[in-house]
Amino acid sequence: MTPVTQAVHAKAIELGKLAIKATTSAGSGHPTTALSLAHLTTVLMYRMMRWDPAHPDALGSDRLVLSEGHAVPIIYAACADLRVTITPGGAPRPMTMDDLMALRSIDSPIDGHPNPMLGFPFFDAATGSLGQGLSVAAGLAAAARVNTLDKSIYCIIGDGESREGQIWEAMDFIADHALTNVVAIMNCNTLGQSDFVAEAQQWRGLQRKAEAFNWSAIVIDGHDPSQIEDTLRRRAELGAGKPLCVIARTIKGWGVPSLAGMGHHGTPVTREHLNAALGDLDRKAEELGLHVDDRATNEDALRINRPPSVSAGQAKSIPVDMDTAVAANPKVAATLSEKNVLSPRRAFGLALEALGAAYPNVAALDADVKNSTYALDFAEAYPDRYFEARIAEQNMISVAAGLSSGGMIPFASTFGRFLERAFDQIEMAIVGGANLKLVGTHVGVTLASDGPSQMALADIAFMRAFAHSTDHRGNPAVTVLTPSDAVSTYSLVLAMAAFPSACYLRAVRADLPLLYDANTDFPFGGHKVLRRGASTRRLVLVACGYMVHSCLKAADEVAEGGIDVAVVDAYALPLDTAPILAFAGSGGTILTVEDSYVGGLGSELSEAAAAQKDAPLIKSLAVHMMPKSGRKPDDVLGYVHLAVADIVASIKEAA
Q1: Could you tell me if 22 and 29 are in contact, meaning their C-beta atoms sit under 8 angstroms apart?
Q2: At a CB cut-off of 8 Å and minimum separation 6, what does 191 contact?
Q3: What is the pLDDT of residues 73-92, one digit of tens each?
């Protein structure tokens, strides 16, 4: 046995003991999965990765993404042993063994699953909702390519986890973009939580599937230090121009016979059985012929390679204004000149291209609809910073999270309806602090002819829930923006890039008349009063997006009959509701109008009014039935009782 092999075995046993102790201390956790990764973790963190424990998030460092996040006690054990810098409360200090034993405590940054935002910068993303880590690794690799950084991205994936379709979306994406600096490591211990993994998730099946996805797949013994290191060091040779997938055959509960087999997933060793489990690992050391107390010899063989230094990125500049962007696009300029209309999605494309010129760290992704979202503008102007995700929205969002952690500002666009299938990925990205910029186009029922399978209607309720939660920066976890014309869209897209937390822009498909001058400011949380209405006992229509225009038409119609109503464009959530409630006044009425399901503006203002004495009455018009296709927006609006005539009828009833 070589000194390196002995050192890795000894360290793996030491880390395994620490993982067991930590989960016993916590009274919960996954020691068996942690033990299956003891050798892989040791080789990666003590031998292969170029990184600095004092600066674990250094931009030039190799990265380790733990997709099977429940195995995290083995990573925590290594970090405590290496005194990796943690930042609880923002104050950096080395991690201690006391920190490790505080696993899962409410006042500890050593959380139950990886989460960098709690003060653990070794990790790049929150993981644990299975299937997402390889996509994050892809985003980190893409960011490294943009920034010309020579870094390796390792991702550990559970064999049971590999049933998740997103894993294969990521495999496809990585092969498609030739991100050969990603190494996927499949932890094949054959045991799920309640049953053995299916045949397709066993090592032979995973090898065949990886090869079918145009990866090189190498099967190794995941507890053989020399096999692990030799395979990783020969990555370029073994990959032969393809990304490398390491199929590591492991044993769940390695070294502790009482933890082997089915029935021990997520079950810590009891305090009564702790010494017996630790004794099993001591006997494993004896069986291997190790001198575990020869710490000096072992540590000499476990020397971490430091990462290269990385220079600061390029400076940002101020994006061009909308008039300049329009002038540079003859087709758009002609449309505006002739008709004074432009769709919000078209303005998004103009703004994204302008950001690309001004912000070297802006990247864009789209899910095979870039010619509809107009992310195509950016893709053609900055192909090195554009990553086509194809029809795989869940992967796209997690890739964007990885890009964010890699120092980029990612704009991810598709139809808003298709972002709904990625709600889990969006939430996990937010938990992990990703600076996501999401753009959903074709929102609301005014999409019309394509029908409800393409209409984003529930998106606003989901996103609004995060708008009323704060992230770890103290900002709304998501700022939701629904602009009503091209000018407001352009301005809000630029503001999204400058804002350090997640944003979601909802852009309708239709061409809409311009409502605002080019120099109008649109602060987050704000609103615009487009008609003031009567000065007493006001009736105020509050809408966003397409429905602002419907409200203006309804206001014009009732004005002919002597009813003077106000119209407010409430383009942002969370909304500063106090000025709008005050504008309507005690005894006034607010009628919210939105072409989505409930949970948007109506809920926003109703909740605020319920907490205020002498608040105005809030009434809501929204989509309360399943929509269908219609040849024109007005057809569908009439079908769901949101036509101008329906708004007029509600105004007359309220008046």
Answers
A1: yes
A2: 32, 160, 197, 252, 261, 262, 265
A3: 999 999 999 999 999 999 99
